[in-house]
Amino acid sequence: MDAVPARARVYVAGVVLAALVCLRPLPEANAPWWAVSLLAGLCAGAELAARSARSCFFGTCYPVLLAGAFLLPPAAAALVALPGALLSPVAQRPVALRRVWRAAQLTLAVWAAARVHGELGGPDAVVAADFPYALVPAGAAVLAFCLVLTLLDGGISVLADRVPARRAWRGLFSRSPAPIAVHGLAGLMMAVLWRSPYGAVAALLVLLPMCVAWWAFAQYHRERAAHQATIRALVQAVDIKDGYTRGHSERVGQASMMIARELGMDDERVETLRFAGILHDVGKLGVPTRLLRKDGPLTPEERRVIELHPEYGHEMVRGIRFLGEARAAVLHHHERLDGSGYPYGLTGDRIPESARVVAVADAFDAMTSTRSYRRARPVAAAVAELQRCAGAQFDPRMVGALVRALGRHGWRPAVTADGTPAGPADVIPGSRGEGVRDGVGRGAR
Question: Where is the composition biased (Basic and acidic residues) (predicted)?
Answer without folding.
Answer: 434-445
